[in-house]
Amino acid sequence: MSAQNMEGQTALITGGAQGIGKAIAALFIARGGRVVIADINAEAAEATAKELSPSGRATWFALDLMDLDMINNVPGILDTASVGPVHVLVNNAGILDNVSFLDTNQKIYDDVMNVNFRGPFFLTQQIANRMRHTGGGAIVNIASASGLLGNQERPVYGPAKAGIIALTKCLAVELAKYRIRVNAVAPGAIATPLTAAGHSKEVRSKVLLRTPLNRYGLPEEVAAAVVFLASADASFITGHTLAVDGGFVSAGFFESPLSGFA
């Protein structure tokens, strides 16, 4: 039996109602685990939990990562719902800025930084405090290729995701004594509702030119990397950031030889 069998494991997934988060939840359940979906959209979170697991292996609650009081109350929510130990935390929820540096105002800065860095920071603190008393666990942070490369119109998102990558390394060192592993996944361009709505034909063309595999990734491909890092197959991996990007980060401004053939 594969070590990626997740029977007996419970994963808390932020932003789990759609896109990459939903794909992670679906794969975790398919591997035998249980999931708790935390999402700012309560209606969508409930619908996703019911869709993914009619048998009840998925539960949900509303969580706004801009709200520190809500984050601090997560342990109480988990206790009230009788969730039990959380073995895996996936910090997936995030928002984009899509604005130039010179046009970035304080609200944009605060919103993007709070959801993409401050929220995951303090949620991880809450869950790691639980994990250290229940035998450890695995934390997987969803970073981004924008945290590994410079990018236009990502003046807050890019630094926030770079911060997540640095935080991953710091926590991997500090939490190892509690048998908590901490890794990150850095997706490139992934075919989600967000990119479908936000990427124009021109943007798509530029993304494909810079991606050696000459296509957008699938949420399921990111999910496979996350579940691997959360599983016993990755038991000696911590502090690592795995790019799931079709070669985007490695290529820089490389033009794909496959352009026009996909």
Comma- or semicolon-separated keywords:
seven-stranded parallel β-sheet; globular; 7 strands; single chain; 10 helices; 262 residues; 15% strand
Compute the number of strand runs: 7
Note the run of SSEs as H and E: EHEHEHHEHEHEHHHEH
Overall, the morphology is globular
Helix residue percentage = 40-55%
Subunit organisation of the chains: single chain
**Radius of gyration, taken over Cα atoms and rounded to an integer in Å:** 18 Å
Most strands sheet: 7 strands, parallel
Question: Number of helical segments?
Answer: 10
Q: Beta-strand level of the residues, as a percent range?
A: 5-15%
Distance between the termini: 36 Å
What ranges have pLDDT less than 50 throughout 5 or more consecutive residues? none
- Mean pLDDT, as a whole number? 93
Strand line-up across the major sheet: 3-2-1-4-5-6-7
Structural class, please? alpha/beta
Structure overview:
With 262 residues, the protein is α/β, with parallel strands linked by helices. Helix content is 42%, strand content 15%. It contains ten helices and seven strands. The protein has helices spanning 19-30, 42-52, 68-72, 74-80, 106-131, 157-175, 193-198, 201-209, 219-230, 248-251, and strands spanning 10-14, 34-39, 58-62, 88-91, 137-142, 180-187, 241-244. β1, α1 and β2 (34-39) form a beta-alpha-beta unit. α1 packs across α9 (219-230). The model has no long low-confidence stretch (mean pLDDT 93).
Task: Summarize the structure in short.
This protein has 262 residues and is an alpha/beta fold.
Per-chain topology:
Layout: E1 10-14, H1 19-30, E2 34-39, H2 42-52, E3 58-62, H3 68-72, H4 74-80, E4 88-91, H5 106-131, E5 137-142, H6 157-175, E6 180-187, H7 193-198, H8 201-209, H9 219-230, E7 241-244, H10 248-251
Parallel strand pairs: 1-2, 1-4, 2-3, 4-5, 5-6, 6-7
Helix pairs in contact: 1-9, 5-6
